[in-house]
Amino acid sequence: MKCPLCGREAVSDLCAFHLEAGDKVKAAYPLWVKAYGGMKWEDYLDNVKRNVQTGQWAKEIAEFLQGV
Amino acid sequence: MGYTLVICEKPDAARRISDALCFGTPESSLVEGTTVYRFKRGEEEFVVCSAQGHVYGISDPLEERSVYPVFDVEWYSSDLVDEKSASITRRISAIRKLAAGASKFVNACDFDVEGETIGFNLLRYACGGREETALRAKFSTLTQEDLLKAFDGLETQAGQGLARAGRARHAIDFVWGVNLSRALSQSALNSGHRYRTVSVGRVQGPTLGFLERREREIRQFVPVPYWKVAGLFKKDGKSITAAYSKEKVETKALAEEVRRDCLGHEAVATAIRKSVVQVGPPVPFNIGDLQKEAYRAFGYTPSRTLQVAERLYLGALISYPRTGSQRLPPSINYAAIMRGIQKVPEYSADAAELLKGELKPVQGPKSDAAHPAIHPTGEVPRRALDVAESAILDLVVRRYLATFGPSARREIVDVSLAVQGHEFKAGGGRTVFMGWMKYYGRYAGYRDVELPSAAEGDKFLTAEVLAEEKFEQRPSRYNQSSLLEKMEREEIGTKATRAEIIATLVSRGYVGGEGMEVTDLGLAVVETMARYAPSVVGTGLTRDIEAKLEGVEGGSEGEATLLRETVRTLASQLAELNLNEEAVGRDIDSAQMKTVARSFFLGGCPVCRKGELRVIRSRTTKKRFVGCSNYQSGCRASAPLPQRGTIRTTTKACERCSWPIIYVLGSGRPWRLCVNPSCPGKRKP
C-alpha cells in the first residue's frame, strides 16, 4: 500500500515519515493549548497548517488529520 | 650524459619553476604540441615539462556502464578514459619522448596526496618505472626563493607513502562509486524511463545522509508558540531596551501578566557589571577556514574559493592552499613577507606598524607535515586580478597581518533592572582596543552596542513593555560552508575533495533551491541506501577507510589488503541492492521524475490563481522565460528570465506582488530575484 500523501511505501495507512510527522503534530497540541489557555483541535490544525515554520510533511499531515 | 627531466603538475607551475631556476627566461619549445622549457644551471641541463592535473585515472577494462559489479580495475591514461582529452595524449607522448633522453628525474608536482599520485603515475607509466629513483622537489610557494631552496635540497623517496595512499584512495573510490552508481542508475533505467546517472560515492553517500537527516527534521517540524517580553526604560532623556530575564515565556497569560505588572512602574538598576575581555587574534588559515571565511565574507562556495586560491598559488601570490595546517613556521620568513606586503599602498601602514615590533604569529592547533598554513608570499601581482582573486588575496593578506596583531579588548556591560519583582536584562559591548581587528579590517565582524551609562540604584521609568508572540524556529538547512564544517568534524573526505563532493551533490540534482534543500531524488537515494545498503550512507565505514588510508600512507596498512576489504564489504551491499532491483528502480525513478518536474515549477500563478508559473524554453529563440501552465485556458502571465547562470526555485513568493522569487547562481555572488518585471519593489523611487 502507498502513502496517500507522498506515494512512498506505507507502514500502516501512511509512510513512516508522515506517521512520524503525525506523532509530532499530536505531541505539540497540549503545548499549544497550554500556551493560549485553550484551543480546539480543529483550530490547532488550522494554525499549524498556516504557520510558516511548520515543515512540509507536518503541514500535509495536519491537512490529512483535518479530513479524518 | 642526459638531462634532468622535471615533471610539474600544471603548465603554469612549469613556467614558474623554469623562470625561477634559470634566473631569467628559459628557452621554450613545443614537443608533441606541449610547451617544454630548457635551461642550464651550472653544468647541469634541465628540461621542464608538465602534466595537466591527473593524466592517469582508474577505469574499468570492460567499459560497459550497464555491467556491475566491477572489481578488477586498472590505471589508464586519462585520454582513454575520457575520449575528449586529446591534449592528454599529447602530454603523455611528450613526457615519454623526453624521458628517453633523461638521466635524472625530478618530481615537482604539488606535495600532497594528489600531486604525489600524479607524479608517481607519470614516472611509472610514462618514464619507464622511475618512481623509485626520482628525486622530489618540495615547496609550498612558487616564489623563486622557495623553489631554489627546494631544488638545492632535492630529496629521495620523499612522497612514496602519499603516492601509495593516493593510488589506494583512487582505486577504492572508483570501485565504490562505479558499482553503486551503476546499480542505482540501471535499476532506475529498468523501471522504464531514460538513463540518468544516479551516483553515490564513498564520501558523497554519508554527506547526503547528513543533509537528508536535517531535511527530515525540517519537514516534520511543528512550531510551538512562546512569548518574548521586552521593556523600554527611560531616564533623563536616555533609554535602555532590556529583555525579560526569562528568554521564552511559555504562555500568553504569563506574558500579559508581566506586561501589566511592569507598565508605568519604576525600574531600579540592581546590578551593573562591567568587564573587559581579551579577544585573541584568529589563527592562520587552513583551506577549510579560508573556505568558510570566504563564504561568510563574499558568499563564495567552497569549490569556487579553492579554484581561486589555486590560481593565486600558481601566480606565486599565496602559498599552497590545500593544507590542513593552521601554523606559520618561522622558516617562511615572516619579515620578508611583511616587507613585500608593505609595498602595496593599501597595506603599507599596517605592515610598517607590525614590522616595528617582534613578529610572532598566533598559531592554531592543526598542523600538516607537508605545508604551512595559507599565507601571502609578499609578491606583487604581475597581471590584473579579477574580482574574486582580489577578494581572496585581500582576505589572505589581512588574515596574515591579523595573526601578528595583539589581542583586542572589548568592554562588556550587563545591566539588570528590577520592576515589581520582575527582572530585565540588557547587554552591550564595545571595542576599547582594536589590536588585531585593525589589521583584519572589515572581516573582524565585531559590532559595538553601546549602553547609556547607569549606576546601581538608578531609577528608570518603564515606558513600554511588549509581549511579542513568537514560534520556535525550525532547524536551519546546511549551507555549503556549514556542510563543509560538518564533513571536517565527522572526519570524512579530505581537504582537497570536500568542496568537490558538495558541488557534485548540487550537480546531480540531490540538493536544490536557495539553501541545500534535499530534493525528492536526494531523499530517495538516501532512503533506498538506508534500506538496502545502510553502511553506504553512514559515516562509520567511510571514516574507517579514511583511517586505514592514513595507515597506507604511514606504511602500517597494505594497499591491496585495504582494497580487498573494501570489495568484500561492497559486494554484500551490492548483492542486497541487486536482489531488490525492481523496488529500488521504482523508488529512484519516481523520485527522479518528481525532482525534474519540480525544478521547472516556480510557484502558483498570481494572475489567474489556477495555474503554476514554470520555466519554459522558447523553441524559436532558445531563450528561457516564465509562463503559466494555464496558458491554454487564457492566462497570459509571463516574464523574462536571466539567460545566464543556474536558476533555482525557492518556494517563496514576493512580499510586494506575490510572484515567485527565484535564486540565480552565476559567476558572482548568488542573488534573489522576483520574476515579475513590474514588481513595485523594483521601481526606482
Could you describe the 3D structure shown?
- The complex is a heterodimer of chains A (68) and B (685).
- Chain A is an all-alpha fold and 68 residues long.
- Chain A has one domain.
- Chain A is elongated and about 40 Å long.
- The two termini of chain A are 19 Å apart.
- The model of chain A has no long low-confidence stretch (mean pLDDT 93).
- Chain B is of the alpha+beta class and 685 residues long.
- Chain B has five domains: 156 residues, Rossmann fold, CATH 3.40.50.140; 171 residues, Topoisomerase I, domain 2 (Orthogonal Bundle); 121 residues, Topoisomerase I, domain 3 (Distorted Sandwich); 117 residues, Topoisomerase I, domain 4; 78 residues, no CATH class.
- Helices cover 39% and strands 22% of the residues of chain B.
- Chain B has 20 helices and 24 strands.
- In chain B, the strands form six sheets. In chain B, strands 2-3-4-1-7-8-9 form a seven-stranded mixed sheet, with helices on both faces. A six-stranded antiparallel beta barrel of chain B has the order 10-11-14-13-12-15.
- In chain B, strand 16 and strand 17 form a beta hairpin.
- Chain B is globular, with a radius of gyration of 30 Å.
- The interface between A and B is medium-sized, with 23 and 22 residues.
What would you say about this model in short?
Chain A is mainly α and 68 residues long.
The percentage of residues in β strands of chain B lies in 15-25%
Gyration radius over CA of chain A: 12 Å
**Strand elements of chain A, count:** 0
CATH topology of the largest domain in chain B: Topoisomerase I, domain 2
CATH architecture annotation name of the largest domain in chain B: Orthogonal Bundle
Using the alpha-carbon principal axes, give the shape of chain B. Answer: globular
What labels describe this entry?
heterodimer, A: 68 residues, mainly alpha, 3 helices, B: 685 residues, alpha+beta, Rossmann fold, Topoisomerase I, domain 2, Topoisomerase I, domain 3, 5 domains, six-stranded antiparallel β-barrel, 20 helices, globular
